[in-house]
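# step 3/5: fold
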Amino acid sequence: MAPAVLRPTGGAALARLRRQSGAPPWQLRCLPVCASTEQVLSDWLRLHPWDGLLPRAVIARRQTLGQGQWGRRWQSPPGGVWLSAALPWSAPSSAPGILGLAVAVALAERLEASGVAVLIKWPNDLLVQGRKLAGVLPRMVVRGNKVRLARVGVGLNLVNAVPPGGIALTEVLAIQRGQQLHWTAEVLAALDHAISLVADPERVCHATEMRLWTRQVQDPRSGEQWSVEGVAEDGALRLRQGTRTNTWTRWEDASFAGL
């Protein structure tokens, strides 16, 4: 079954706003509701294979089965920005970690331009006042030994209800529901910037390190405490404990608590 297409006004208004700002073109599908933007994007790529010419995004006003990290449910009620994108990839690295951090940095910069102080909780969350404002879910689509395209899901709390530990942007900025279009365009602009950022992993790492949410973490399995030294160019978190060093590389290794 072909992916559903949103009311024309949603996608048309977003495309018009981006044209007015001089932003590069995207293929957009906007939906009032779907189970998961990730699934709709997968269907779209299956029915209309990736040609690499234009990035694509599926945007929903509400998801009923949103996908978070490690298969967790991502709560995505009306009032937030919920999207999944397919992006061209020309960077030498094939590590999803550096893509996730590039998106986090680019989105943090857009928020900071509006006066919001943002920290990055490695590997995939943006925090404001110690609470989760946004999440990023990256992965690579590989054919043979070459990255065919990059995929990333983004959720940004705006004026929606949030779970415990979350925060909506309206709590720190005077925004209203009518500004969802603006902030959806801001997320797409951040993805545009992230595509260029991944070509310079050193810059991504430095920008991430400046915004790290903590300097000490605890291994959830051993209980050991580690000092955070920085971020490696594949997106891994570099750790030290006295003379011992360690790295947390895979995203599924990141189920730890910041101290």
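# step 4/5: annotate
The CA atoms of residues 114 and 173 lie 8 Å apart.
# step 5/5: archive (pending)
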